[in-house]
């Protein structure tokens, strides 16, 4: 019985932790969504790191691209990427570029018909004798139209429309998918409102259950008290009946026999 109660308590705690963790993630996602909508480029930035949702499949997994030796693997459509932004200080910027390697994934602005934000992998990086680097990039997914294209950025061009934003240091598909859904009209209902309603409903059920258990406990205690009082009254009535019939109590009778002996 004790083991069953302990397991129930543990399961209740686990469910509560998971529900509140999910609610916390949803709240974070809502904040990121609101912040990103305010930015013209659709990004949220915290402590020098940008959070962006990938809007194409150009970095999706592809058999034609081996990413096993890279820190950042292929990035699925709707994944969120965490981007370490390029330092503003010139000396730090040069050091930052010097640390880049083939296989690193960069987020950058690039112009085709119009300027767009792209996240692709470095395929080649060459240091220029006059300073700066020539960086060639391409998507992992060679089957995608955008993944098959190659972009070239010259870091020495100060006012170029093609420039690096930062380096991808992490990714999360669940968080990116959640934020993508929140941007849809029904996403807010299914991802935020319904889970919140479920949490509130579970809490109400729990409160009703606790109140019911307390009421039952009080009723049992009151009944036990009444039974005890009734039992006490019964004993007193039996004693009075014996006295009325002139029958001494057993203890008294035994004491008299001892005295005769």
Descriptors:
261 residues; 8-stranded antiparallel β-sheet; alpha+beta; Umud Fragment, subunit A; 2 domains; 49% helix
Question: What does the model show?
Answer:
The protein has an eight-stranded antiparallel beta sheet. The protein has two domains: 155 residues, Umud Fragment, subunit A (Ribbon), CATH 2.10.109.10; 57 residues. Helices cover 49% and strands 21% of the residues. Helix 1 packs across helix 4 and helix 1 packs antiparallel against helix 5. The longest helix is centred in the C-terminal third of the chain and has 58 residues. A hairpin with a 2-residue loop joins strand 1 and strand 2. The chain is α+β, with helices and mostly antiparallel strands. The protein contains six helices and eight strands.
Q: Compute the number of strand runs.
A: 8
How do the helices and strands follow one another from N- to C-terminus? HEEEHEEEHEEHHH
CATH domain fold name of the largest domain? Umud Fragment, subunit A
Classification by helices and strands: alpha+beta
CATH superfamily of the largest domain: Umud Fragment, subunit A
Report mean pLDDT, rounded to a whole number.
Answer: 83
Strand count, sense and barrel status of the largest sheet are: 8 strands, antiparallel
Low confidence ranges: none
Helix content: 40-55%
Task: Count up the domains.
Answer: 2
Q: Could you tell me the radius of gyration in angstroms?
A: 37 Å
How far apart are the first and last residues' alpha carbons, in Å? 56 Å
What is the second-level CATH architecture of the largest domain?
Answer: Ribbon
Strand content: 15-25%
How many alpha or pi helices? 6
Q: Could you give the order of strands across the largest sheet?
A: 1-2-3-8-4-5-6-7
Q: How would the global form be characterised?
A: rod-shaped
CATH class of the largest domain: Mainly Beta
């Amino acid at each position: 019985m004790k083991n069953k109660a302990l397991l129930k308590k543990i399961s209740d705690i686990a469910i509560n932790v998971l529900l509140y963790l999910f609610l916390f993630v949803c709240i974070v996602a809502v904040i990121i969504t609101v912040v990103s909508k305010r930015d013209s480029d659709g990004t949220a930035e915290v402590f020098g790191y940008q959070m962006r949702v990938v809007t194409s499949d150009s970095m999706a997994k592809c058999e034609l691209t081996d990413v096993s030796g890279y820190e950042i693997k292929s990035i699925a459509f709707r994944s969120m990427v965490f981007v370490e932004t390029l330092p503003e200080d010139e000396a730090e910027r040069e050091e930052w570029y010097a640390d880049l390697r083939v296989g690193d994934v960069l987020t950058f602005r690039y112009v085709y018909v119009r300027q767009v934000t792209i996240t692709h992998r470095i395929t080649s990086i060459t240091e220029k004798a006059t300073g700066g680097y020539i960086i060639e990039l391409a998507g992992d997914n060679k089957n995608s139209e955008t993944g098959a294209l190659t972009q070239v950025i010259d870091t020495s061009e100060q006012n170029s429309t093609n420039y690096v934003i930062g380096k991808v240091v992490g990714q999360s598909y669940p968080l990116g998918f959640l934020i993508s859904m929140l941007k849809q009209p029904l996403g807010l209902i299914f991802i935020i409102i319904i889970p919140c309603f479920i949490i509130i409903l579970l809490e109400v059920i729990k409160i009703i259950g606790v109140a019911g258990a307390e009421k039952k406990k009080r009723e049992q205690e009151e009944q036990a008290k009444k039974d005890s009082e009734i039992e006490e009254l019964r004993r007193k009535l039996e004693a009075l009946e014996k006295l009325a019939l002139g029958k001494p109590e057993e203890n008294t009778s035994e004491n008299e026999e001892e005295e005769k002996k």
